[in-house]
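Supplementary notes for students who missed Thursday's class. We covered one full example, reproduced here. Read the sequence, then the structure, then the short commentary at the end.
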Amino acid sequence: MADTPAKPMLSKGCLIAAGVAGVLLVILLIIGGAFAGTYNSLVKLDQGVKSSWAQVENVYQRRMDLIPNLVEVVKGYAKHESATLTAVIEARSKATSFKIDESVLNNPASFKKFQAMQGELSSALSRLMVVTEQYPNLKANENFMNLQAQLEGSENRIAVERKRFNEVVQAYNTKRQTFPTILLAGMFGFQEKAYFQAEEGAKKAPKVDFSK
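Structure (token representation):
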């Protein structure tokens, strides 16, 4: 009966090399999984910022849409307030001409300009509301009262959406600045986002008092 051939034995060096390769593979998988998780987290937070910004755009647009009708109603009762009405019209025109898309989020200068324009519009509207107090018949006009109520609602929504926007931007920026997230952020173009600032007219809603 022939002897069964012996199976070749792996050398000790080969076993060690295989073990090291296995450990390295596990480490690479762990690191890859961690980086993938970090990247996905950044993407999710970035999308949250964009979604919140879309809401900010919506509420500002809602206010923009109210202004032409408001100006026309006031004009019918306060023809002598042409300077105030013109200021509102011009401020709206400037704000409307400024393109407010997602690119503004990554451009501090553009974001600041956007805030300044909205601040000018808020100030012009505030002056207009003060002027209307001098015209009792205007204040009693049903269309004007309805527009006032809508304007007040828009200003409240703007304040709420700005606050929410700052909150999601803070979460994004905080995550982005942590290690090792900041390395991935630089590699994949996740830039720091700008906040709304509590200064100038951009965060001051026009004071509309319905009790008078």
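Commentary. The chain has a mean pLDDT of 83. The two ends are 116 Å apart (CA to CA). If anything here is unclear, bring it to office hours.
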